[in-house]
Amino acid sequence: ETAKPSNFLRQVIESDLEQGTYAERRWGGSPGDAEHHAKGMIDPARVRLRFPPEPNGYLHLGHAKSIWLNFSLAEQYGGVCHLRFDDTNPEKEEQEYVDAIREAVHWMGFGTAIADDPAHPGAPNSHQYFASDYFDFMYRAAEYLIGAGLAYVDEQTAEQMRAHRGDFNTPGVDSPFRARTAEENLARFRDMRDGKLADGAAVLRAKIDMASPNINLRDPALYRIRRATHHNTGDKWCIYPMYTFAHPIEDALEHITHSICTLEFEDQRPFYDWLLDRLAEGGLIARPQPRQYEFARLNVTHVVTSKRKLRQLVEEGHVDGWDDPRMPTLAGLRRRGYTPDAIKLFCERSGVTKSGGWTDYAALEAALRETLDPIAVRAMAVLDPVKLVITNWGELMGGDEVLDACSAPVHPHHPDMGHRRFKFGRELWIERTDYEDVPPKGYQRLYPGNKVRLKYGHVIECTGATRDAEGQVTEVQARLVPDTKSGTPGADAIKVKGVITWVGASDAVPCEIRMYERLFVADNPGVGELVEELNPNSLSVSQGYVEPSLADAHSDMPLQFERHGYFVADANAVASGRRVFNRTSSLRDSWGK
Ligand code: ATP
Ligand code: MG
Ligand code: MG
Q1: Which CATH fold topology does 147-240 show?
Q2: Complex ipTM, two decimals?
Q3: CA–CA separation, 465 and 448 (whole Å)
Q4: Phi-psi region of 2 (alpha: psi -120 to 50; beta: other; left: phi over 0)
Q5: pTM summary value
Q6: For 392-520, where are the alpha helices, taking DSSP H only?
């Protein structure tokens, strides 16, 4: 294996391992342990990371970076990585998203094992968690803070709270409720929990410093009232913890060592540390606490990486669902024919840094082609068919119905992958663009008087074409040149410049072909009105033919249609018994042209 390039996170982890920062960690160090670590977990002293999506949509390319980063760091250092559903926002979260996220992480090749789920065995070093499983503990932590004089119930209106928070230049103003006693606060917080206050009537806030230059430390909200049914806890709660309160606690209860997030959370780090320091002082969580590290999020040109915007495309019907092959979701990329290896290679190459930037979509396609080329099964396909008739076939072969077997390697560099077989005959399908009455300059394909090779078949000489009343070619005619069959002695005696692909009319399999262009015309979509930036030509559908070897192609098999690019059988179509092929990408870079 080649050495992985270092990055600042690898350096942090290596230094922690060297210094034994977490070496003394044991289960049982915190009250949460007894409740939450009955899942056959391994040594808590190991490097322990997490990927914490909120189940409010499907995962996208940006998430792939985070999945790859956390799971592969854990793998590299013999640690573990938790798939944790950060489900503290009941209105937006759904079981459908939990399932889709799990499926996507699993597809990426990272286990999401849960002890009681034989359907998803996963890797032994990964576990699945829900933030909502910690609601009881979080509630106790909140009561602890209240008791310690570190939190209070604020009953200002949202507007007053906003006005009193101040801004970058102006210190905030203390809430009139800030001076309440711990007893009053505790009673009021229990009223919140018991449903005695209306939604939005009060919040629990940390009592830190309304004049802090870091606005995140100006008494951030910890709990809000929200009567909403939760996908996991149902109607048990009418108060829910805020993300900023919940997240550090989740990390601490799971004994995360390095809590890796994107740069937007840098200003939250002081609160993360404040909270965990206070809870450790109170004996609620174990030391050493997890630490937060930030890296630059992945931004890819031409791609929207925001669940909210992707949801808009789905809900307004601009795409055919979250798994539309034009979507940058992992489900969409998968259906388009992208592979986990291509995505992981792209993530690795995009680097892990502290400063943001844009990665060119072409880099993803390059990684895709590089990883598909060695494995893609080759086949011939005709995307825009026109009939080719070999007018001297019967004469040469002793009958129009006689067929001639041809073969080709499944992969040009892997003889072990075997051969495909298909039949040559009097009638074939070729590409409409492979014929011209009058050849443009440099055109080497079919025109009257020109000879070309039908790949893996024979050399033919074009004699003309028939057109309909509209001038559309309905049939091309040619004569076969005897003794030129590929792979037979003397086949190359006649030199031809053009080689074209084809499928035999006798055994070709009809199919639908879906060609995709970029979903957005803008380089950086989402800056303007998203919908106005959509590319009206992002999908074109045609009826074509593929060679018989693809009659039962399954959707996890990367294909290369010779001359045309990488393709894959559409998973949804396969499931409903239809034959549809999605173009994954062209053979060469055409992005940005
Ligand atoms: P979105 O804004 O699309 O909803 P999010 O960050 O709110 O994304 P989460 O479900 O909270 O979505 O994300 C889970 C994890 O994925 C987080 O740790 C987040 O930092 C990470 N992540 C999300 N987008 C990116 C990105 N573009 N690059 C790297 N990591 C990302
Ligand atoms: Mg988020
Ligand atoms: Mg978000």
Answers
A1: Glutamyl-tRNA Synthetase; domain 3 (3.90.800)
A2: 0.96
A3: 8
A4: beta
A5: 0.93
A6: 393-397
